[in-house]
Amino acid sequence: MVKFTIVVIFLFFMFPIAFADLRVGFYSSSCPRAEQIVGQVVQRRFNRDRSITAALLRMHFHDCFVRGCDASILIDSTRGNQSEKAAGANGTVRGYELIDEIKKALERECPSTVSCADIITLATRDSVVLAGGLKYDVATGRRDGHVSQSSEVNLPGPRSTVSRVLEVFSANGMSLDEMVTLLGAHTVGFTHCSFFRDRLNDPNMDPSLRAGLGRTCNRPNSDPRAFLDQNVSSSMVFDNAFYKQIVLRRGVLFIDQQLALDTLSKGLVTVFAGNNAAFQRSFADAMVKMGNIKVLVGNEGEIRRNCRVFNSAS
């Protein structure tokens, strides 16, 4: 199976509204065991499914880059509203049931206190650490949004160019270096054949990798939903293997390989390929910054009782 990594470097850009109200230990008085409970549930899931790290990273990214980190991605569609979940870009996002499990445990411990947005942020951090990533502090105090519409989802896909992805990151206050860093999250998890089948004749892909992918994805009657580890060397370990692979032209997705080929990004790719510690530090900083994109704080939004439903609807 082929392993996929996405990394992004954050310059610690400060969002004034976010940092005015978010703080490490936000729940220390209102729900002292909140982070412990999140960590315990994530640990149990990770013990039986190590791919949950990739799932949560993707969920967190897809949430923050639409309306900000407000858990709008968790809302189920209704007859009157197609939520973000219904958008094509979110069709393979998974891990919702884990968020539900954490929320139920927290509601038993301290009802209507911990937001779903904070649950996503904390659970993602904990899963990265379990996979071998650097532990970083997470400021909490986010509130959950009141809006979730599929029409607002306009995320870059696996066939995007570096310039196109940079446009989306820049619109959310993120730099080029942070973009390259966060795409390193593809160092864990898997991807579906349908996302890269059009690359099986790409001269920019290592011939041995093309042959291996072709044997899996070009078989008669092969399932387009079949998947491969995104990183052929360490698909469940959070490290810099993704960068090492794309330097060798062994990137599975088009956007991944372009990071090592485009003059905008290839310099940092080379740095990360040779320095895991630098990647880990940059990734931690970038995740902190991403987790503060357009957050709702104070009296904004709500604290959902059920992460899938707005309180007014439940």
UniProtKB/TrEMBL annotation:
Free-text remark on how the cofactor is bound: Binds 2 calcium ions per subunit.
Keyword Repeat included in the entry's annotation: no
Keywords: Calcium, Disulfide bond, Heme, Hydrogen peroxide, Iron, Metal-binding, Oxidoreductase, Peroxidase, Secreted, Signal
EC number from the UniProt entry: 1.11.1.7
Top-level EC class: oxidoreductase
Signal peptide boundaries: 1-20
Reactions catalysed: 2 a phenolic donor + H2O2 = 2 a phenolic radical donor + 2 H2O
Full protein name: Peroxidase
Lineage of source species: Eukaryota, Viridiplantae, Streptophyta, Embryophyta, Tracheophyta
